[in-house]
Write a structure and sequence with these properties.
Distance between the termini: 45 Å
Strand content: 5-15%
Largest sheet: 6 strands, mixed
Number of helices: 10
Helix content: 40-55%
Shape: elongated
Number of strands: 10
Order of helices and strands: HHEEHHHHEHEEHEEHHEEE
Length: 409
Protein backbone atom coordinates (compact mmCIF):
# COMPACT_ATOMS: atom_id res chain seq x y z
CA UNK A 1 0.00 0.00 0.00
CA UNK A 2 1.56 3.33 -1.04
CA UNK A 3 2.28 5.92 1.61
CA UNK A 4 0.51 9.32 1.54
CA UNK A 5 3.64 10.98 0.09
CA UNK A 6 3.83 8.31 -2.60
CA UNK A 7 0.18 8.84 -3.51
CA UNK A 8 0.81 12.59 -3.77
CA UNK A 9 3.73 11.98 -6.14
CA UNK A 10 1.65 9.59 -8.29
CA UNK A 11 -1.11 12.15 -8.90
CA UNK A 12 -1.08 13.87 -12.26
CA UNK A 13 -0.65 17.66 -12.16
CA UNK A 14 -3.83 19.64 -12.55
CA UNK A 15 -5.04 23.23 -12.47
CA UNK A 16 -4.86 25.04 -9.18
CA UNK A 17 -7.90 25.92 -7.13
CA UNK A 18 -7.23 29.58 -7.87
CA UNK A 19 -7.33 28.91 -11.62
CA UNK A 20 -10.53 26.88 -11.25
CA UNK A 21 -12.21 29.65 -9.29
CA UNK A 22 -11.08 32.24 -11.86
CA UNK A 23 -12.50 30.17 -14.71
CA UNK A 24 -15.69 29.77 -12.72
CA UNK A 25 -15.99 33.54 -12.28
CA UNK A 26 -15.35 34.12 -16.00
CA UNK A 27 -17.82 31.42 -17.03
CA UNK A 28 -20.56 32.80 -14.79
CA UNK A 29 -20.02 36.35 -15.97
CA UNK A 30 -19.95 35.42 -19.67
CA UNK A 31 -23.03 33.26 -19.25
CA UNK A 32 -24.82 36.15 -17.59
CA UNK A 33 -23.85 38.48 -20.44
CA UNK A 34 -25.05 35.98 -23.01
CA UNK A 35 -28.36 35.61 -21.22
CA UNK A 36 -28.81 39.40 -21.21
CA UNK A 37 -28.23 39.54 -24.96
CA UNK A 38 -30.69 36.70 -25.44
CA UNK A 39 -33.27 38.56 -23.37
CA UNK A 40 -32.74 41.70 -25.45
CA UNK A 41 -33.29 39.76 -28.65
CA UNK A 42 -36.26 37.76 -27.49
CA UNK A 43 -38.18 40.50 -25.75
CA UNK A 44 -37.17 43.56 -27.80
CA UNK A 45 -35.74 42.97 -31.25
CA UNK A 46 -38.24 40.27 -32.18
CA UNK A 47 -41.00 42.88 -32.20
CA UNK A 48 -39.08 45.21 -34.56
CA UNK A 49 -39.87 44.78 -38.27
CA UNK A 50 -37.03 43.23 -40.27
CA UNK A 51 -36.76 46.10 -42.74
CA UNK A 52 -36.42 49.82 -42.11
CA UNK A 53 -39.34 52.13 -42.76
CA UNK A 54 -39.94 55.85 -43.02
CA UNK A 55 -43.04 57.91 -42.46
CA UNK A 56 -44.07 61.42 -41.71
CA UNK A 57 -42.94 60.91 -38.16
CA UNK A 58 -39.40 60.01 -39.26
CA UNK A 59 -37.09 57.09 -40.13
CA UNK A 60 -37.41 53.81 -38.22
CA UNK A 61 -34.49 51.34 -38.52
CA UNK A 62 -35.35 47.71 -39.03
CA UNK A 63 -34.29 44.67 -37.06
CA UNK A 64 -31.40 43.92 -39.39
CA UNK A 65 -30.11 47.48 -39.03
CA UNK A 66 -30.23 47.22 -35.23
CA UNK A 67 -28.42 43.87 -35.26
CA UNK A 68 -25.65 45.18 -37.52
CA UNK A 69 -25.18 48.17 -35.20
CA UNK A 70 -25.53 46.24 -31.90
CA UNK A 71 -23.56 43.04 -32.47
CA UNK A 72 -20.07 44.61 -32.87
CA UNK A 73 -20.58 46.77 -29.77
CA UNK A 74 -21.89 43.75 -27.80
CA UNK A 75 -18.94 41.61 -28.93
CA UNK A 76 -16.40 44.20 -27.83
CA UNK A 77 -18.26 44.58 -24.55
CA UNK A 78 -18.19 40.82 -23.95
CA UNK A 79 -14.52 40.73 -24.84
CA UNK A 80 -13.74 43.51 -22.36
CA UNK A 81 -15.92 41.76 -19.79
CA UNK A 82 -13.92 38.58 -20.38
CA UNK A 83 -10.64 40.32 -19.62
CA UNK A 84 -11.97 42.18 -16.60
CA UNK A 85 -13.56 39.03 -15.16
CA UNK A 86 -10.35 37.03 -15.68
CA UNK A 87 -8.13 39.60 -13.98
CA UNK A 88 -10.64 40.41 -11.26
CA UNK A 89 -11.47 36.75 -10.68
CA UNK A 90 -7.79 35.85 -10.37
CA UNK A 91 -7.21 38.62 -7.83
CA UNK A 92 -10.40 37.83 -5.90
CA UNK A 93 -9.63 34.10 -5.80
CA UNK A 94 -6.13 34.85 -4.55
CA UNK A 95 -7.52 37.05 -1.79
CA UNK A 96 -10.13 34.48 -0.75
CA UNK A 97 -7.64 31.60 -0.76
CA UNK A 98 -4.92 33.55 1.04
CA UNK A 99 -5.62 31.88 4.42
CA UNK A 100 -5.06 28.47 2.82
CA UNK A 101 -1.44 29.44 2.20
CA UNK A 102 -0.91 29.91 5.95
CA UNK A 103 -2.76 26.68 6.73
CA UNK A 104 -0.73 24.74 4.17
CA UNK A 105 2.51 26.15 5.54
CA UNK A 106 1.54 25.14 9.07
CA UNK A 107 0.51 21.67 7.88
CA UNK A 108 3.84 21.10 6.19
CA UNK A 109 5.68 22.35 9.27
CA UNK A 110 3.68 19.92 11.43
CA UNK A 111 4.37 17.07 9.00
CA UNK A 112 8.07 17.87 9.32
CA UNK A 113 7.83 17.50 13.10
CA UNK A 114 7.43 21.17 14.14
CA UNK A 115 4.35 20.95 16.34
CA UNK A 116 5.13 24.27 18.03
CA UNK A 117 4.09 26.25 14.95
CA UNK A 118 0.68 27.94 15.05
CA UNK A 119 -1.31 29.56 12.24
CA UNK A 120 -2.80 32.35 14.35
CA UNK A 121 -4.99 33.53 11.47
CA UNK A 122 -6.25 37.09 12.14
CA UNK A 123 -9.62 38.49 11.13
CA UNK A 124 -13.25 37.88 11.92
CA UNK A 125 -14.75 34.44 12.24
CA UNK A 126 -15.45 32.58 9.01
CA UNK A 127 -14.90 29.07 7.64
CA UNK A 128 -11.17 29.57 7.11
CA UNK A 129 -10.66 31.07 10.57
CA UNK A 130 -12.59 28.20 12.17
CA UNK A 131 -10.44 25.72 10.25
CA UNK A 132 -7.26 27.51 11.32
CA UNK A 133 -8.35 27.68 14.96
CA UNK A 134 -9.30 24.00 14.94
CA UNK A 135 -5.93 23.15 13.42
CA UNK A 136 -4.13 25.22 16.08
CA UNK A 137 -6.08 23.43 18.80
CA UNK A 138 -5.19 20.07 17.27
CA UNK A 139 -1.52 21.02 17.12
CA UNK A 140 -1.64 22.07 20.77
CA UNK A 141 -3.15 18.76 21.83
CA UNK A 142 -0.71 16.79 19.70
CA UNK A 143 2.23 18.72 21.12
CA UNK A 144 1.05 18.16 24.68
CA UNK A 145 0.36 14.48 24.03
CA UNK A 146 3.73 13.95 22.37
CA UNK A 147 5.52 15.66 25.24
CA UNK A 148 3.58 13.51 27.71
CA UNK A 149 4.42 10.34 25.78
CA UNK A 150 8.09 11.26 25.63
CA UNK A 151 8.13 12.00 29.36
CA UNK A 152 6.24 8.78 30.04
CA UNK A 153 8.65 6.73 27.89
CA UNK A 154 11.66 8.27 29.63
CA UNK A 155 10.18 7.62 33.08
CA UNK A 156 9.12 4.08 32.16
CA UNK A 157 12.59 3.33 30.82
CA UNK A 158 14.10 4.66 34.04
CA UNK A 159 11.75 2.60 36.20
CA UNK A 160 12.35 -0.58 34.19
CA UNK A 161 16.11 -0.04 34.12
CA UNK A 162 16.34 -0.21 37.92
CA UNK A 163 15.19 -3.85 38.39
CA UNK A 164 17.19 -4.92 35.35
CA UNK A 165 20.33 -3.30 36.73
CA UNK A 166 19.76 -4.93 40.12
CA UNK A 167 19.25 -8.30 38.45
CA UNK A 168 22.45 -7.86 36.46
CA UNK A 169 24.39 -6.95 39.60
CA UNK A 170 23.06 -9.94 41.55
CA UNK A 171 23.93 -12.29 38.71
CA UNK A 172 27.46 -10.89 38.44
CA UNK A 173 27.96 -11.26 42.20
CA UNK A 174 26.73 -14.85 42.12
CA UNK A 175 28.97 -15.64 39.15
CA UNK A 176 32.06 -14.18 40.83
CA UNK A 177 31.54 -16.27 43.99
CA UNK A 178 30.39 -19.77 42.93
CA UNK A 179 30.89 -21.21 46.42
CA UNK A 180 28.48 -18.78 48.12
CA UNK A 181 24.99 -19.72 49.25
CA UNK A 182 22.70 -18.63 46.46
CA UNK A 183 19.45 -18.93 48.42
CA UNK A 184 19.50 -15.27 49.41
CA UNK A 185 20.44 -14.23 45.88
CA UNK A 186 17.54 -16.24 44.44
CA UNK A 187 15.14 -14.68 46.95
CA UNK A 188 16.28 -11.18 46.01
CA UNK A 189 16.05 -12.01 42.32
CA UNK A 190 12.54 -13.29 42.86
CA UNK A 191 11.56 -10.07 44.60
CA UNK A 192 13.12 -7.86 41.91
CA UNK A 193 11.46 -9.90 39.17
CA UNK A 194 8.09 -9.68 40.95
CA UNK A 195 8.38 -5.90 41.14
CA UNK A 196 9.29 -5.70 37.43
CA UNK A 197 6.23 -7.82 36.60
CA UNK A 198 4.02 -5.53 38.66
CA UNK A 199 5.37 -2.47 36.89
CA UNK A 200 4.85 -4.09 33.49
CA UNK A 201 1.27 -5.00 34.38
CA UNK A 202 0.62 -1.45 35.52
CA UNK A 203 1.98 -0.11 32.23
CA UNK A 204 -0.20 -2.54 30.27
CA UNK A 205 -3.25 -1.49 32.27
CA UNK A 206 -2.50 2.16 31.56
CA UNK A 207 -2.05 1.43 27.84
CA UNK A 208 -5.30 -0.53 27.75
CA UNK A 209 -7.18 2.28 29.41
CA UNK A 210 -5.80 4.89 27.00
CA UNK A 211 -6.83 2.79 24.00
CA UNK A 212 -10.49 3.23 25.03
CA UNK A 213 -11.41 -0.34 24.10
CA UNK A 214 -14.14 -0.85 26.66
CA UNK A 215 -17.00 -3.20 27.32
CA UNK A 216 -20.40 -1.58 27.64
CA UNK A 217 -21.94 -3.18 30.71
CA UNK A 218 -24.03 -1.78 33.54
CA UNK A 219 -21.69 -1.66 36.54
CA UNK A 220 -22.72 -0.85 40.12
CA UNK A 221 -19.99 1.26 41.69
CA UNK A 222 -21.33 0.49 45.17
CA UNK A 223 -20.67 -3.23 44.64
CA UNK A 224 -17.19 -2.46 43.33
CA UNK A 225 -16.53 -0.33 46.40
CA UNK A 226 -17.62 -3.20 48.66
CA UNK A 227 -15.44 -5.66 46.75
CA UNK A 228 -12.37 -3.43 46.82
CA UNK A 229 -12.86 -2.63 50.50
CA UNK A 230 -13.20 -6.32 51.37
CA UNK A 231 -9.99 -7.12 49.49
CA UNK A 232 -8.05 -4.24 51.06
CA UNK A 233 -9.45 -4.62 54.57
CA UNK A 234 -6.37 -6.51 55.83
CA UNK A 235 -4.18 -3.71 54.49
CA UNK A 236 -6.24 -1.13 56.37
CA UNK A 237 -6.20 -3.17 59.58
CA UNK A 238 -2.44 -3.57 59.56
CA UNK A 239 -1.92 0.17 59.04
CA UNK A 240 -4.49 1.12 61.68
CA UNK A 241 -6.76 2.85 59.19
CA UNK A 242 -10.53 2.85 59.65
CA UNK A 243 -12.11 1.87 56.31
CA UNK A 244 -15.74 2.93 55.82
CA UNK A 245 -18.00 2.32 52.81
CA UNK A 246 -21.37 4.04 52.50
CA UNK A 247 -23.76 5.48 49.95
CA UNK A 248 -26.24 3.92 47.58
CA UNK A 249 -26.42 2.13 44.26
CA UNK A 250 -24.52 3.96 41.52
CA UNK A 251 -24.90 2.41 38.07
CA UNK A 252 -22.31 3.37 35.46
CA UNK A 253 -21.86 2.11 31.90
CA UNK A 254 -18.49 0.64 30.99
CA UNK A 255 -15.93 -2.03 31.78
CA UNK A 256 -16.33 -3.72 35.14
CA UNK A 257 -12.68 -4.81 35.31
CA UNK A 258 -11.34 -1.32 34.58
CA UNK A 259 -13.77 0.40 36.94
CA UNK A 260 -12.82 -2.10 39.65
CA UNK A 261 -9.19 -1.12 39.01
CA UNK A 262 -10.20 2.52 39.54
CA UNK A 263 -11.89 1.81 42.87
CA UNK A 264 -9.10 -0.48 44.08
CA UNK A 265 -6.38 2.00 43.14
CA UNK A 266 -8.14 4.88 44.88
CA UNK A 267 -8.82 2.90 48.06
CA UNK A 268 -5.29 1.53 48.15
CA UNK A 269 -3.86 5.01 47.58
CA UNK A 270 -5.98 6.33 50.42
CA UNK A 271 -4.72 3.60 52.75
CA UNK A 272 -1.07 3.92 51.73
CA UNK A 273 -1.02 7.72 52.00
CA UNK A 274 -2.57 7.93 55.44
CA UNK A 275 -1.58 9.40 58.78
CA UNK A 276 -1.98 6.27 60.90
CA UNK A 277 1.22 4.48 61.87
CA UNK A 278 -0.21 2.47 64.78
CA UNK A 279 -3.72 1.28 65.60
CA UNK A 280 -5.74 4.02 67.23
CA UNK A 281 -3.98 6.92 65.51
CA UNK A 282 -7.27 7.96 63.91
CA UNK A 283 -6.45 7.52 60.25
CA UNK A 284 -9.51 6.93 58.07
CA UNK A 285 -10.62 6.16 54.51
CA UNK A 286 -14.22 6.94 53.55
CA UNK A 287 -15.73 5.63 50.32
CA UNK A 288 -19.08 6.97 49.11
CA UNK A 289 -21.11 6.10 46.01
CA UNK A 290 -24.36 7.56 44.74
CA UNK A 291 -26.04 10.01 42.40
CA UNK A 292 -24.07 13.06 41.34
CA UNK A 293 -26.43 15.64 42.82
CA UNK A 294 -26.25 13.93 46.22
CA UNK A 295 -22.48 13.67 46.59
CA UNK A 296 -21.60 15.06 50.04
CA UNK A 297 -19.23 17.98 49.75
CA UNK A 298 -18.47 17.23 46.09
CA UNK A 299 -20.63 19.96 44.57
CA UNK A 300 -23.55 19.55 42.20
CA UNK A 301 -23.15 17.29 39.19
CA UNK A 302 -25.33 16.50 36.22
CA UNK A 303 -28.52 14.53 37.02
CA UNK A 304 -27.42 11.78 34.61
CA UNK A 305 -24.18 11.05 36.47
CA UNK A 306 -22.99 8.81 39.28
CA UNK A 307 -20.23 9.59 41.74
CA UNK A 308 -17.51 7.66 43.51
CA UNK A 309 -15.89 9.66 46.30
CA UNK A 310 -12.83 8.53 48.27
CA UNK A 311 -11.58 10.66 51.16
CA UNK A 312 -8.62 9.90 53.38
CA UNK A 313 -6.64 11.47 56.16
CA UNK A 314 -2.93 11.94 55.74
CA UNK A 315 -0.11 14.42 55.42
CA UNK A 316 -0.93 17.87 54.01
CA UNK A 317 -0.50 18.12 50.23
CA UNK A 318 0.26 21.50 48.60
CA UNK A 319 -2.40 22.51 46.04
CA UNK A 320 0.21 22.83 43.29
CA UNK A 321 1.30 19.26 44.03
CA UNK A 322 -2.25 17.93 43.68
CA UNK A 323 -2.39 18.99 40.02
CA UNK A 324 0.57 16.71 39.18
CA UNK A 325 -0.59 13.55 40.95
CA UNK A 326 -2.38 12.18 37.86
CA UNK A 327 0.78 12.33 35.75
CA UNK A 328 2.56 8.98 35.28
CA UNK A 329 5.36 8.22 37.76
CA UNK A 330 4.33 11.10 40.02
CA UNK A 331 4.09 10.22 43.71
CA UNK A 332 2.34 12.10 46.47
CA UNK A 333 3.54 12.88 49.95
CA UNK A 334 5.91 10.57 51.81
CA UNK A 335 4.40 7.23 52.61
CA UNK A 336 3.96 6.02 56.11
CA UNK A 337 6.01 3.02 55.06
CA UNK A 338 8.21 2.98 51.99
CA UNK A 339 9.33 -0.62 51.88
CA UNK A 340 6.78 -1.40 49.18
CA UNK A 341 6.68 1.87 47.31
CA UNK A 342 4.52 2.05 44.23
CA UNK A 343 5.44 3.20 40.75
CA UNK A 344 3.43 6.43 40.55
CA UNK A 345 0.97 4.95 38.02
CA UNK A 346 -2.10 4.51 40.23
CA UNK A 347 -3.79 7.85 39.60
CA UNK A 348 -2.54 7.94 36.01
CA UNK A 349 -4.42 4.68 35.42
CA UNK A 350 -7.47 6.08 37.21
CA UNK A 351 -7.50 9.21 35.06
CA UNK A 352 -7.10 7.25 31.82
CA UNK A 353 -9.91 4.86 32.72
CA UNK A 354 -12.21 7.71 33.76
CA UNK A 355 -11.51 9.58 30.52
CA UNK A 356 -12.15 6.42 28.52
CA UNK A 357 -15.57 6.24 30.21
CA UNK A 358 -16.26 9.92 29.33
CA UNK A 359 -16.12 10.86 32.99
CA UNK A 360 -14.32 13.42 35.12
CA UNK A 361 -11.73 13.10 37.90
CA UNK A 362 -11.37 15.77 40.58
CA UNK A 363 -8.66 15.88 43.29
CA UNK A 364 -8.86 18.27 46.23
CA UNK A 365 -6.43 18.48 49.13
CA UNK A 366 -8.07 18.44 52.57
CA UNK A 367 -7.32 21.33 54.89
CA UNK A 368 -6.48 18.87 57.70
CA UNK A 369 -4.28 16.72 55.47
CA UNK A 370 -5.08 13.97 53.05
CA UNK A 371 -6.99 14.00 49.79
CA UNK A 372 -10.54 13.92 48.44
CA UNK A 373 -10.88 12.18 45.08
CA UNK A 374 -14.19 12.43 43.21
CA UNK A 375 -14.97 10.36 40.11
CA UNK A 376 -18.03 11.41 38.07
CA UNK A 377 -19.25 8.96 35.42
CA UNK A 378 -22.28 8.90 33.10
CA UNK A 379 -25.12 6.91 34.60
CA UNK A 380 -25.89 3.49 33.13
CA UNK A 381 -29.16 1.56 32.70
CA UNK A 382 -30.80 0.08 35.81
CA UNK A 383 -29.94 -3.46 36.89
CA UNK A 384 -32.49 -6.15 37.77
CA UNK A 385 -33.45 -6.02 41.43
CA UNK A 386 -31.49 -8.35 43.71
CA UNK A 387 -30.82 -8.94 47.38
CA UNK A 388 -28.76 -6.11 48.95
CA UNK A 389 -25.29 -6.86 50.27
CA UNK A 390 -24.63 -6.40 53.99
CA UNK A 391 -22.68 -3.22 54.82
CA UNK A 392 -18.98 -3.54 55.46
CA UNK A 393 -18.20 -2.82 59.13
CA UNK A 394 -15.56 -0.19 59.93
CA UNK A 395 -12.10 -1.61 60.38
CA UNK A 396 -8.80 -0.33 61.39
CA UNK A 397 -5.75 -1.10 58.95
CA UNK A 398 -1.75 -3.63 56.30
CA UNK A 399 1.22 -3.48 54.29
CA UNK A 400 0.75 -2.52 50.64
CA UNK A 401 2.46 -5.76 49.58
CA UNK A 402 -0.64 -7.68 50.65
CA UNK A 403 -2.64 -5.99 47.90
CA UNK A 404 -1.09 -7.74 44.93
CA UNK A 405 1.15 -4.79 44.19
CA UNK A 406 -1.57 -2.14 43.97
CA UNK A 407 0.02 1.17 43.04
CA UNK A 408 -0.05 4.34 45.08
CA UNK A 409 0.20 8.03 44.18
Amino acid sequence: MPLPDDRARQRRPGPSVRAKLTLSYVAVLMLTGGLLLAVVYLFLLRYVPPEASSSAEGFFPGRNDLIRAFVPAAAWTLLALLGVSAVGGWALAGYMLGPLVHITRATRAAAAGSLGHRIGLPGRADEFRELADSFDDMLGRLEAQLAEQQRFAANASHELRTPLAITQTLLEVAESDPDADHAETLARLRGVNSRAIQLTEALLTLSRAEQRVLEQDAVDLSLLAEEAAEELLPVAEQRGVALQVSGEQALALGSRSLLLQVVANLVHNAISHNSAERPGDGGFVRVWTGAGAEAPGAGAHAPGAVVLRVENSGAPIPPQRVATLTEPFQRGAERVRSDHAGFGLGLAIVQSVVRAHRGALDLVARADGGLVVTVVLPAGPPLPAGPPLPPLPPASGVDSAACRGRDTH
